[in-house]
Design a protein that fits this description.
Layout: E1 3-7, E2 10-13, E3 18-25, E4 32-39, E5 46-52, E6 58-60, E7 68-73, E8 78-83, E9 92-100, E10 113-114, E11 118-123
Length: 124
């Protein structure tokens, strides 16, 4: 059973930065993809960034490219999301997720395991 625990959310002004961290345990092979999603109030859950553990390839949603960076620390078992140049539209609950044999990398339904989420609020 894969378990994920997020931390690092908070409130920041536009243009600022935050770093989210997800502690991941229980995944045992490189068939997994690890991802961050977000859901703003009244909107559908959106894929932010995903890392394929097989080869380390990372993909980003169009709305965060060039501003967000995904990294994995195998020693600490964490998946970190560095968020720079934050905008008010980045305000959302951010979730860490894991899924096996993911075909559509930023599609919510591909991921079986989810964390509880951490809130990010960006003020203008």
């Amino acid at each position: 059973q894969v378990q994920l625990v997020e931390s690092g959310g908070g409130s920041v002004q536009a243009g600022g930065s935050l770093r989210l961290s997800c502690i991941i345990s229980g995944y045992t092979d490189h068939s997994y993809s690890l991802a961050w999603f977000r859901q703003a109030e009244g909107k559908e859950r959106e894929g932010v960034a995903v890392r394929q553990t097989l080869d380390g390839t990372t993909y980003y949603g169009d709305s965060v490219k060039g501003r967000f960076t995904l990294s994995q620390d195998n020693a600490k078992n964490t998946l970190d999301l560095q968020m720079n140049s934050l905008k008010p539209e980045d305000t959302a609950m951010y979730y860490c997720a894991a899924g096996r044999w993911v075909a559509d990398r930023l599609r919510e339904l591909e991921y079986k395991f989810w964390g509880q989420g951490t809130q990010v609020t960006v003020s203008s």
